[in-house]
TrEMBL record:
<dbReference type="GO" id="GO:0006914">
    <property type="term" value="P:autophagy"/>
</dbReference>
<dbReference type="InterPro" id="IPR001680">
    <property type="entry name" value="WD40_rpt"/>
</dbReference>
<dbReference type="InterPro" id="IPR048720">
    <property type="entry name" value="PROPPIN"/>
</dbReference>
<dbReference type="Pfam" id="PF21032">
    <property type="entry name" value="PROPPIN"/>
</dbReference>
<dbReference type="InterPro" id="IPR015943">
    <property type="entry name" value="WD40/YVTN_repeat-like_dom_sf"/>
</dbReference>
<dbReference type="GO" id="GO:0008289">
    <property type="term" value="F:lipid binding"/>
</dbReference>
<keyword id="KW-0677">Repeat</keyword>
<protein>
    <submittedName>
        <fullName>WIPI1 protein</fullName>
    </submittedName>
</protein>
<dbReference type="GO" id="GO:0000407">
    <property type="term" value="C:phagophore assembly site"/>
</dbReference>
<comment type="similarity">
    <text>Belongs to the WD repeat PROPPIN family.</text>
</comment>
<keyword id="KW-0853">WD repeat</keyword>
<dbReference type="InterPro" id="IPR036322">
    <property type="entry name" value="WD40_repeat_dom_sf"/>
</dbReference>
<keyword id="KW-0072">Autophagy</keyword>
<keyword id="KW-0446">Lipid-binding</keyword>
Amino acid sequence: CSSLAIGTTTGYRLFSLSSVEQLDQVHESNEIPDVYIVERLFSSSLVVVVSHAKPQQMNVYHFKKGTEICNYSYSSKILSIRLNRQRLVVCLEESIYIHNIKDMKLLKTILDTPPNTTGLCALSINHANSYLAYPGSATSGEIALYDGNTLKTACTIPAHDGPLAALTFNSTGSKLASASEKGTVIRVFSIPGGQKLYEFRRGMKRYVNISSLVFSMDSQFLCASSN
């Protein structure tokens, strides 16, 4: 919660959120145009970038040194990237790749995942339990929970009737919130067991697009943004 990364048509920018009065720009890069994914490893110098020019390639940089650490190419367009201090997760439409953050080696490939056109996935920022959540079905709101440390499936959660629209872990990785494409109900589950803890009714109106869910750092609040 201390920095902001923005992809732009000319490259990407990193900002510090430490000051309330102003947005302090930490870094600006114009080396790669049309950046649609930029993920920074917390407040470190490591940043992962994907551009529309090469949507199948992930570039990992040390932005303070101005050097490229490595790059990886995949079989189809990269839809999302998640990272914590232990793992780097690359999500494609029908597969997920898990890398070890220390040496960027590929540890596991989860193949033949249900069609995930938005690249919906969540990774716990607490590296002690690097849980990964992604849609377990294209037609129902089933959540597949995967343990990124042991590289084994943890459980399957029947979260919603309709397909999933949003997923997020709390800061400790002990809770997971989800919403479906219908957008009327938000549910919170315990991790790793998958028991339902809370159910919030967002509204009665049918079909609202929930674009994001996020817990406050102390897990006391859950914010949902929609259209």
